[in-house]
Design a protein that fits this description.
Two copies of one chain form a homodimer. By secondary structure, chain A is α/β, with parallel strands linked by helices. Helix content of chain A is 40%, strand content 21%. Chain A has three domains: 16-82, Winged helix-like DNA-binding domain superfamily/Winged helix DNA-binding domain (Arc Repressor Mutant, subunit A), CATH 1.10.10.10; 87-205 and 389-408, ATPase, nucleotide binding domain (Nucleotidyltransferase, domain 5); 215-382, ATPase, nucleotide binding domain (Nucleotidyltransferase, domain 5). Chain A is built from 14 helices and 16 strands. In chain A, the strands form four sheets. In chain A, strands 6-5-4-7-11 form a five-stranded mixed beta sheet. In chain A, helix 4 packs across helix 5, helix 6 (200-211) packs across helix 14 (387-401) and helix 8 (276-283) packs antiparallel against helix 11. Chains A and B meet through helix 1, helix 6, strand 13, strand 14 and helix 11 of A and helix 1, helix 6, strand 13, strand 14 and helix 11 of B. Chains A, B: Keywords: Kinase, Transferase. Chains A, B: It comes from Paractinoplanes brasiliensis. Chains A, B: Pfam families: MarR_2, ROK.
């Protein structure tokens, strides 16, 4: 594939057949209904190759024929649409105070969306893994009862996750070196579908790009806004995970060596200014610090801050301006280093964005080396708190789009 | 092409034929000599397709046959190697005190490497463009006299360059909004080869990845070390330029709001601590500030600092430790956000790296959220001060590798 800038490619050679299957599948997804001749004309593949690829995709129940059309110039043609009705992609999220599950079909339509309260004991991952496994089993068996095959399951975790699915560090959960992928695979009895574990922000940005208002933006960042803050980054259409999967550690960018102390043990990190705990302490000083740090209490406090901001409460507006300013400062680091086209504010940032975005934009503008923030726009995400779980399901769909396809039906199964 | 992580792809469909030509060409580059059957076996392309693609590459004089081999199992096979002897890729660099030109053949061998002193008047780009054009004409006519066709020319500029080759800002040159690509194209009389303009660090990292010690590292950063500091970034094998081409503004990352004032008008930027001017002022305080700011004087000062450091001069060692510490602080921002596998220190950092790297590594370690600096290694670049120009030529070769091929010879030309 030719990159936007003609830059170097990884040295390994792609499986050209898989690539071409994925090219045809993506064409059908975006141009449905279309004919084999349409696909050949757009992709540059020859017609015989397209026919062979389409047959393969039909065998894999990813594409189906929907009848002839005559509403065209030339001969009537058999039209193709995305099928995928026998499939489902599943995403789970574990956070400090809740678990979520989302399932999508191949077209990105939601098949289920569940949320349940959860308060695990910090440092006791076993309990969390059992709860995640129970939720996964319920979701998978519901989907299987509906006749769907689960193509994959991805778990979103608020922390550093390596390429093997080991959670190196998840401060909010009190986890260190938890091999979540291995433990959950065992708890689910070695399921046939692939099971992946990934940082929550890295997944949420996939959902933002496929399902959100920023669909198709090639250089995109999604910020999780909660007790901890993370950035999911897509550059030139591809997720940026970094060499070990640790990219996007946004919350612990140091802003001021003389700043307030942070939960990570350093001083002046963004999270110490703009994490949800910091906002609550500043906007609602009557709330005790201990209460403000209890995640299960966050939701009502955000609602209260929102209500007071709309009513013009001076203290709350000052707190939001201060948080926005620090957010803009941290965003200037991001903009100077990776120059995204768009930053979508998720989590608690979304609902408070009418106050946060103006303050953040002003600070970003004053600190960006390039004029006009280097073109970076700040927007509120349209996704709700299921963004990371939806991103987990999206990641499974992305693997399909990239050519990791379910096998063809066997003759016996037809 | 399947990405490492199965992430989403840009929605446009690649030209599959061009992709496959590039796949075959890259195979010949890395596995030369090889047979058509070898290529088919490794790439998954069928043999008839490979034969057709190889014929095309031979027609374009990119690949040639070198005779049969019998030193194999099975039938003797016609072996193929990279040709490209009729081609050259050219890179130029303009900096505050010099111009360089580098030409490479298709295999990355150096055909010429020139350096000449240059001191343009700040804010007068016309003079610089005339000098660049003269250098380009000399290089191109030398290559053409040798029977080579120039495939492209890329100019490296220390500043913000947009996707159209407009230099938005190059503080060291005193440039703002200079349409260098257009002006240079006109000055060269609208040449037939493509002419590109790009940030110097973005190009140097391409040379580091293809020609340096970090060849093949998929997540790589190259730091230019001079009066100004920039970062060229490669993520997952591809250059990270950002939405408008402004990524890698490393020198103006703010480290401390109470820090020293910077040439950009802000306070506490990395450059105010670790730019070459800052190092000279700290290590050699007897050198007047005005002298230290004159780029043509930099070379001897770096040599002097190197000599004194080796001799154990206390003041110089303290200055290098301080610069290294600030460099490590800024690198922690880079590591937390993009998690590279390797950071290569270029420019003046290279020769002083024995003192800078230990201090920078200690600081980076203490500030990285992930353990062990998230796996990021700091190394001295093996490239000399022609790195950006070599990167300019490399960019032309990268375009060839990505499928932007020279046209086949016409029948008359054979």
């Amino acid at each position: 594939m030719i990159t936007r800038d003609g830059g170097p490619q990884p040295a390994d050679f792609a499986d050209v057949r898989a690539t071409n299957l994925a090219v045809v599948l993506r064409h059908v997804r975006t141009h449905s209904p279309c004919s084999r001749a349409d696909i050949a004309a757009t992709t540059g593949l020859n017609k015989a190759t397209v026919s062979s690829l389409v047959t393969d995709l039909i065998d894999r129940r990813l594409v189906r024929e929907v009848g002839m059309t005559e509403n065209r110039i030339g001969r009537p043609a058999m039209m193709l649409v995305l099928d995928g009705s026998p499939y489902a992609a599943v995403g789970l999220e574990i956070n400090t105070d809740y678990l979520t599950a989302v399932a999508l079909d191949l077209a990105g339509e939601r098949l289920l969306s569940w949320r349940r309260a959860f308060t695990g004991t910090p440092g006791q991952p076993g309990q969390a893994i059992a709860s995640l496994a129970a939720l996964a089993r319920r979701a998978v068996s519901k989907l299987e009862r509906e006749g769907r095959q689960v193509l994959g399951l991805t778990v979103a975790v608020p922390g550093l996750v390596d390429a093997d699915g080991v959670v190196e560090l998840a401060a909010g959960l009190g986890w260190q070196q938890v091999d979540l992928r291995k433990s959950l695979t065992a708890a689910l009895g070695e399921p046939a579908y692939p099971l992946m574990v990934e940082n929550d922000a890295n997944l949420a940005v996939l959902a933002e790009q496929r399902l959100g208002d920023s669909a198709g933006v090639a250089d995109l960042v999604y910020l999780t806004g909660g007790a901890s803050l993370g950035a999911g980054i897509i550059c030139d259409g591809r997720p940026l995970r970094g060499a070990r999967g640790f990219a996007g550690e946004f919350g612990h960018l140091p802003l001021d060596p003389a700043g307030p102390s942070c939960t990570c043990g350093r001083r002046g990190c963004l999270e110490a200014y703009a994490g949800l705990g910091a906002l609550i302490r500043q906007a609602l000083p009557d709330v005790g610090i201990e209460t403000a740090l209890s995640p299960s209490e966050f939701g009502p406090h955000v609602d209260e801050i929102h209500r007071l901001a709309k009513a013009g409460d001076v203290q709350v507006l000052a707190a939001l301006t201060d948080v926005g300013r620090h957010l803009g400062h941290a965003l200037s680091l991001l903009t100077n280093l990776i120059n995204p086209a768009c930053v979508a504010l998720g989590g608690y940032f979304t609902v408070l964005s009418p106050w946060l975005i103006p303050a953040a934009t002003a600070e970003l503008e004053s600190r960006s080396v390039a004029a006009n923030c280097g073109g970076t726009r700040l927007v509120a995400s349209a996704l709700d708190s299921s963004a990371a779980a939806a991103g987990g399901a999206t990641r499974v769909l992305d693997a399909i789009d990239a050519g990791v396809l379910p096998p063809p039906r066997t003759a016996a199964a037809r």
